[in-house]
Amino acid sequence: MTTHNTLSSEIVRTILDKWKTRATGWQSGFLSDNISLSRTRASFPSPDATIYDFDNELSIFMEFKPPTETKRGILTGLGQAIAYLQHCSVSYLISPDIIESFPMREYLKDLFREKIENKIEVGLVVYSVNNYKNVAIEVDVTTPNIPSTSTREDNPGNYWAAWRDVPPHQVWLLLDEAYKMGDYANRLEKVWQNFFDTYYFPPGNRETIQPTESKIYMWDGINKLLPFEVKKKELRERVQAGQLTVEEAIRKIKQDASSRPEIRDNLYKDYKKNAKNFLTHLGLWDDEAHLTEVGFELHKVGKLHKPTSKYFQDFLAKVTLIEGKHLELINDIEKFTRNKLFQTKNDAIKDLLDYFENNGYIKKNPNRAQTGARKFLQSEFQLWGKLCLANKEGASYFIPEKGFAFNWKEITRIISL
Prior knowledge:
By secondary structure, the chain is α+β, with helices and mostly antiparallel strands. The chain has helices spanning 3-20, 71-83, 104-116, 168-180, 187-200, 229-240, 246-256, 267-281, 293-305, 310-322, 326-337, 345-358, 370-375, 378-386, 408-415, and strands at 35-38, 49-53, 58-64, 90-96, 98-99, 102-103, 122-128, 131-139, 398-399, 403-404. It has 15 helices and ten strands. Strands 1-2-3-4-7-8 form a six-stranded mixed sheet, sandwiched between helices. The N and C termini lie close together (11 Å).
């Protein structure tokens, strides 16, 4: 992991803890106690971290600068923090106290107090290069932006990219569709519909209740995805039981595969949500499916090395770890579970979920049931297993009294690509 990402993660968590515990000097006048890390805006301009206040519906963006930054880079960071205000309620510049032997703390404090304080919603946080835990708000924000349609979110989401059953080949095909797509109204919908009709579930596959292959290779690069497999199995059983005719079953398949906007809930929309979210959370495209710099690079890797290649899978793993903040998540898991006296995976997951909620790493859910605890991180471990970032010991990724079996040799290799 780069120094920037390591320090950013550590210092943002220190800031979050100080706000939640109302530490001396951190008694903000506008933040509630109901704050947590949340998903960072993936498209430009993208901050280093986001904290969300659920009671006040406020987004707080963070621009972090490492101690290796230049004086010019610090001023660039200030410009970034100002630009974030188009998309958030408050932003903070996080700066080291010294840059190239220059007293950056004093310089920035004077600048903020003269030109920024009480004028725009940007605050200044400074940390010591000699002790990264020594973090202070030097100039705070007194009144945040009133939440608007651009700053208010119904569900800001967890701070890491969500994944649900999307193989690497599917990622590349969606990037390729977006790469080839011209400018249209509702461009993202057009990209998904072309992908769905061409590769995922072509119209001919909707004329039968028997299993049909898509044109998408699974993780092994050999077998192909079987969309609607569970749905078709259920319909075959109903036909065999005399509850439906074959024609009625096919009509149900076509309805579940329809892109018509008046159909609010079907498999077409469910599959779209899963795929769209993963690519969006990784910052591979923007809200209208225009490829970002990272998206262009990943698409190029697939074009040169084939999207079913190990090299493409490795590059996707790197993007997931860094841009998707899965490395931060793995580090947070390790910090709490390594060499603790947990005997089972379920015990570790249950206490880990409590730890994440209590520390503001995810939104606290006072109504969660035990089943929610068991499902916590289930999809993430499935993904890490497929990417070889975690190893199974027998049937589990967990080793009693040791912790989760992350493959640190592979993780180190991947992030060094």
